[in-house]
Every structure is written in structure tokens, then in C-alpha cells.
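Review form for a predicted model. The reviewer records the input and the model, then writes brief findings.
Reviewer: anonymous (R2)
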Amino acid sequence: MESFFPCSMQVGDLVVINIVGMTELYIAEITQSDPLKMKVAERGPLARLQSGDFLILTVNTFLLQRDLHENTRGFWSMKHKSRILSGLAKLGVKDGKVRRIFHHLVEIR
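Model under review:
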């Protein structure tokens, strides 16, 4: 898949998305590039998102990926109107539940 995004869109990359019909921001992992599929959680319906289920937020994704590769805080320093959620083990979520994420830290309730 040829990409016009200013960020990496390869399998395993993390991206910031809105799920259609939801107001929160989610950190998802790309699981397939063509057709594009991703997961926000390790199991359940959020583990099988397909094109049409989400919108990729390219500026937020670019900043998140830069933070991960260059140890900066561009994405995390933005004042997000929404909570940032994910259920990815890659981000430290161990129980499979979608949780609020704070700069690579998981909020446990």
C-alpha cells in the first residue's frame, strides 16, 4: 500500500485514531497494511478494526511516533480534549482491558 501519510504505516506501528461513533482518542497498532487493519486491544471487537471503523489522526500519529523514536514529548504535551485509551500489551496493559494511557503509563483502576 502506497502511503501519503507523513508517518509510518507499517505492521507493528502505533497510530492515533478515532473510532467512528466514539469521542475518545485511541492508540492502535497496525496489524495489516493492505487492506489496513488495526487493533486497540489484544482481544474482542477492538482487536479487529478494519478500514471504515476508524479515522487516523495523522498529526497526532506523527507526534506520537516521533516521541517513541526520539524520546520527545510532543504528543504527550498536547492538551487533548479527549482521553487517550488503549488496551495494547505493547503499552503495558496486562489485563486486556482498554485503559487510559499517560505517556507510556497505564492508569490502573
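Findings: The mean pLDDT is 85.
Further findings: The first strand starts at residue 14 and ends at 19.
Recommendation: see findings above.
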